[in-house]
Write a structure and sequence with these properties.
The chain is α+β, with helices and mostly antiparallel strands. The chain folds into two domains: 75 residues, no CATH class; 144 residues, OB fold (Dihydrolipoamide Acetyltransferase, E2P) (Beta Barrel), CATH 2.40.50. 31% of the residues lie in helices and 32% in strands. It contains six helices and twelve strands. The strands form two sheets. The chain has a six-stranded mixed β-sheet. The longest helix has 34 residues. The chain is rod-shaped. The protein starts with a helix and ends with a helix.
Length: 224
């Protein structure tokens, strides 16, 4: 495409600029009085000024478009850092900023005169006794036990950072920590439970993404 054609494309694709070369210039009715002096529109200062304005606007538009693409790519690469785990047959995800550590399973020691379904007892975590909560009871879930599909699948304890100190919850399997594109989180598919923020389709699984604020609030209430 020659310079004249490129300028025409820019003039039509960006904010309107008087393309006099197409109205009264060489591509119009040739009534422009400046044609006598310049012979062709590309020799005219008006045409040159319009070209400069259009090219400047095009460059700005391109820069903005590139910046938007870069920001989108950074967001996707960063994503939301989620730990995916299984309770019974149900897969869940929790923001990693709520977690202190994923630890091996430890014995849970029951507490005398303890009647709470949520508080199961205490576990020894590096020499400290930490409250152990039932995440299923905390979320009000009725879970079905799922048979392990591999000898490598081992229960784990998640050490969660609560306001009053760390607590541990036992899970049946940990898939790992993943950076998830927020656009993959379907909030419309979330259940009526206030603990569910969204649903994520992940490697053939339907994963319930937990609302971290509501989960931590329930943890704090269970310890009060």
């Amino acid at each position: 495409m020659n310079g004249q054609g490129e300028l025409d494309v820019l003039a039509t694709s960006l904010e309107a600029i008087d393309d006099c070369w197409n109205r009264i210039g060489v591509h119009g009715d040739k009534s422009c009085p400046l044609l006598v002096e310049h012979i062709h529109c590309r020799n005219c200062d008006v045409y040159a000024a319009a070209a400069t304005r259009l090219l400047d606007r095009y460059a700005l538009a391109q820069d903005a478009h590139v910046q938007q693409e870069v920001e989108a790519q950074v967001q996707v690469r960063a994503g939301r850092s989620l730990l995916l785990f299984r309770l019974g047959e149900e897969w869940m995800a929790l923001a990693t900023r709520c977690l202190v550590e994923v630890a091996p399973l430890q014995p849970v020691h029951s507490l005398p005169h303890q009647r709470s379904r949520v508080l199961k007892g205490v576990a020894n975590v590096r020499g400290a006794l930490v409250p152990c909560l039932s995440l299923a009871d905390l979320l009000g879930l009725e879970l079905t036990n799922a048979a392990a599909t591999s000898a490598r699948v081992m229960p784990r304890m998640l050490i969660v950072a609560a306001n009053g100190g760390s607590v541990v919850v036992q899970v049946d399997e940990v898939d790992g920590i993943h950076a998830v594109d927020p656009q993959r989180l379907n909030s419309e598919a979330a259940s009526e439970s206030r603990f569910t923020e969204a649903v994520l389709q992940w490697r053939g699984r339907s994963v319930r993404v937990l609302n971290e604020e509501h989960v931590l609030s329930a943890v704090n209430r269970s310890l009060s």
